[in-house]
Amino acid sequence: MSHRDTLRALGDARxxxxxxxxxxxxxxxxxxxxxxxxxxxxxxxxxRLVLAGALPAVALATxxxxxxxxxxxxxxxxxxxxxxxxxxxxxxxxxxxxAGHSESAPAAAGRYWVLRAEHGDGARRAQDELWLxxxxxxxxxxxxxxxxxxxxxxxxxxxxxxxxxxxxAGAPRSARELAALPTTPAKLRNKLLVWYADTGAAExxxxxxxxxxxxxxxxxxxxxxxxxxxxxxxxxxxxxxxxGRVTDQLGRSGVAVTVTRQGDxxxxxxxxxxxPTTGQALAQESWVADSPSSWTAVIAAxxxxxxxxxxxxxx
Length: 315
Hints:
This protein is an alpha+beta fold. About 25% of the residues lie in helices and about 30% in strands. A nine-stranded antiparallel beta sheet has the order 4-3-2-1-11-10-9-8-7. A hairpin with a 2-residue loop joins β10 and β11. The chain is globular. It starts with a helix and ends in an 11-residue tail after the last strand.
């Protein structure tokens, strides 16, 4: 699901301050990743890796390569910045390092996948926390609030279940389908390409694979091995380049990798921002003509065995 799709799906519960008639937020209008010695590095060829072992119709774009825990309760498990260390200069090297960090994360599971993120679309900003059922028979819900804080509003996600809660490769997927994804980059790529053929996607194959891989590392509840395979698949894609050090819309430092295409309104980029010291994907951003058009930045992700919380209990 794109950033715009997420905001539209939660529009009925959006605080009034985010309505089109509301005042634009100047912070978003001027916000963009701030370069920290950005170097545009031509991607050097990376060998396609084949290694052993290596998400809804409403699903948040969240930062995926997160160290998951079985913590329960209404408080989120925040994405923690890593200890600073030199990052590889090329996109392939960065993504391979992220893969190594990701597959060493502990495996976890629960009844709900809980994602908290902040979204921007033009001058609109909002935060949401999704409780997405991963077990049969459970309801799902979205909690939304103004990006500057305030009270949470709950919106039940009618019709969203463990059978269709997770958007991947252009269609809703079940928790079982995610659990069964291949754990090697070549097999994962082949599985995604089968879905590419099934969905009749209009975008090119490599762009399809980039967006699918970004979803796997950013916001879907997959195993550490699948996430690592997705990073390695991304590392082998042609046309993926590094923008070097950037700051995401929440002010966190990371390294951006991107794919670029020529659109009707200028050059369009999709950027995936990763903390190279932890392997955590922090954000995904869409840029047009050197300006951000929409973005999602993950605040927290965790598994929970609790039931749906009251909105007033969220911090």
